[in-house]
Amino acid sequence: MMLGSGLSTQVGASVAALAFPVIGPAGVVAIRQWVAAIVLLAVGRPRLRSITARQWRPVIGLAMVFAVMNLSLYTAIDRVGLGLAVTLEFLGPLAVALLGSRRVLDLVCALVAAPAVVLLARPQATTDYLGIGLGLLAAMGWASYILLNRKVGRELPGATGSAAAAALSGLAYIPVGVVVLLHHPATLAAASYALVAGVLSSAVPFLVDLLTLRRVPAQFFGVFMSVNPVLAAMVGLVVLHQEPAIVDWAAILVIVVANAVAISFGGREDAPHHNPVPVEPCDLVHGVPELAMTPAFGKVSADGEPQSSRATCEGTECGSWQPSRP
User: Fold this and answer.
1) DSSP codes of every residue in 151-178
2) Is residue 177 scored above 70 in pLDDT?
3) How far apart are CA 1 and CA 68, in angstroms?
4) Burial of 185 by CB count in 10 Å (0-12 exposed, 13-18 middle, 19+ buried)?
5) Rg of the chain's alpha carbons, rounded to an integer?
6) In Å, what is the CA distance from 295 to each residue of 97, 277, 312?
7) Which of 71, 96, 83 shows the shortest CA–CA distance to 290?
8) What are the residue ranges spanned by the domains of the chain?
9) pTM above 0.85, yes or no
10) How does residue 266 score in pLDDT terms, banded at 50, 70 and 90?
11) Taking the mean position of all CA atoms in its chain, how far away is CA 317?
């Protein structure tokens, strides 16, 4: 299921790239955001009227991150290729994991990953620095998404916050989509590619990841999702015929290993060093893997173990749990 989720995400991104020549990244992202909003509203069924003004602030911030993160990633894919764009974006969760730790091992991971990033962005005759910059902007967006999603998860139960943010982002993209599609009318093929991309990169991974996190520890899920840059490079090679150089493959693998190590050995450090305390049996998944590559959204108790209950905490402000370390 985890492998299928990752492949669905990357195949969706590669199919989206097929529509870029007709409607551009902005048109594809608009359609994808609409699909994500519909899926999350249907699955999360948020009670929007119960959200207070104080709670809306981080939700609005999360909606802005959704919009910017996906547009910058898809534009980077259009300019530098799927494998490099996704690898650069993965620096976001890696940075959150490393900056939130004082372990020597995490410092080593950072020192190992840094040269790999420099190698990927090395000057070449065809280096697209704007594309690289957009990939790094997507990484900043993902890091912000993780931090904001934690806050939203504390403020609102279930998928309410993520669903509301996705809905706002979808609404914001209505004028963008209208303008883009008026200036660049979509062909049937381009519209189909964008719709398929929305389903494969939003709907399928969200539902599959929800089921997966009921069966495996959130931390293991996060480690497995670290292989997404490799999957992206492979899918880009097969579907888009984007062939990374040998040194690029090596750099991608180094970043994947650094990310996996940081998640594997750093997940329990943040857990309080006291006896476990009871927590409300909240929904297992409170966030949406908006790029379907998000390492983990399992709720964990005070002892760091993921909750497995399918019950919800209606009317409860679940402040006693924390999402797993990204």
Assistant:
1) HHHHHSSTTHHHHHHHHHHHHHHHHHHH
2) yes
3) 28
4) exposed
5) 19
6) 11, 25, 22
7) 71
8) 2-323
9) no
10) low
11) 24
